[in-house]
Amino acid sequence: MNPREQERSTISHLFGHSVHTRAVRKWHPVSALVYDMYEIERDTYTDFKRTLKHLQAHKDSIVVLNLTHESVSANPSPDDAICKFIDKFWQRVQPHQVGVMCSQTDSLEAVRKRYPGIETCCANFWESHTALHRQKQSLSLRSGQRFVSLNRRYTHIRALLMYSLRNLTQLEYSFGHRGYWDDAPALTVQDQELKLLQDPQLTNAIKKWQQVRGVFRELPCDITDIDEPVVWDSIYNNDISIVVESRTAKHRASAFVTEKTFRPVSLAKPVFVIGQYNIAPTLQHMGYQTLIPHSADPVQQVYATVAEVTRIANMDLPQYRNHLNNLQEVAQHNLHNFNKRTTPTERAKNCTPHLAKFFHA
């Protein structure tokens, strides 16, 4: 499935019914016309006049800007592509005919303040994307480890985590991908990332460790492919997931959460999550339970996670099984919450009234 088809299938899952391309010849008088963040930023859409004309003729239709799949500025400026897009419609149609979907509440609050009366929906593309593709998996059981951590793109936080867990034998992991860990551009990226640790001694220790053969590991697939069975099997067949989210920088009131967290949640696996400032409060606000105390600093999140993982790794088998049962209670709560949150009926509760009408059970 190509990326555009994947996106449309997930948007269909978000709304709870089929979503058609805007290229269809005739639009229904009551339509939600969805534009994606990327086509707005890249200015690749060509049907603005048609959309505006349709909205002016059909007061029950709405144009919706989908920002659910990426991290968005906490306070978009007037020069931001998002605001420029909204401005094209604002004042030309009724406020309830313009809507924004976003996963980060601080972004939505800023949009509501700038555009009083705009329709909004708090929804996470990756939560729904994971639910949709979890249904397609046929998982087979094999023996596994106590822990799993899948990492592709190199970041200083992922490097710190893998270095800190270097002596852990009960860990299945991936770190980097072929062709991106030993050539000149990769080494430049690594240097730039490791400088963010602001600790020359630690940076040198990590660089020395990375020279050891076998430190960089990859799965036999692209782990960014949400349909890839190897990724799902790896999470399913190991007990506890350790996730470093896509975004760990920037202090946000509402952190960005992706399929990296939702995949183990959807498989009823306990998961340690390292992410942006407020990653734990963000997940808790969404109804999920977290496994370590909140820390604003991602580096401290790594150290707290490593300390708890090491404690668990040192348990004998009876202690471990007992502790895993306790963690499984959290995992089951999170799975129940995930299943509930990924229904259109529940999602509509996080929408303003006119936009909520387009979410079908």
Please characterize this protein's 3D structure.
- By secondary structure, this protein is an alpha/beta fold.
- It has 16 helices and 8 strands.
- A 4-stranded parallel β-sheet has the order 1-2-3-4. A 4-stranded parallel β-sheet has the order 6-5-7-8, sandwiched between helices.
- Helix 11 (259-266) links the parallel strand 7 and strand 8 (271-274).
- The longest helix has 25 residues, at 317-341.
- It is globular.
- The two termini are 25 Å apart.
Shape: globular
Q: Tell me the strand percentage band.
A: 5-15%
Low-confidence stretches: none
Radius of gyration: 22 Å
Distance between the termini: 25 Å
Question: What is the helix content?
Answer: 40-55%
Give me the number of helical elements.
16
Class derived from helix and strand content: alpha/beta
Number of distinct beta strands: 8
Order of helices and strands: HEHHEHEHEHEHEHHHEHEHHHHH
What integer is the average pLDDT? Answer: 91
Q: Report the biggest beta sheet as strand number plus sense, adding barrel if it closes.
A: 4 strands, parallel
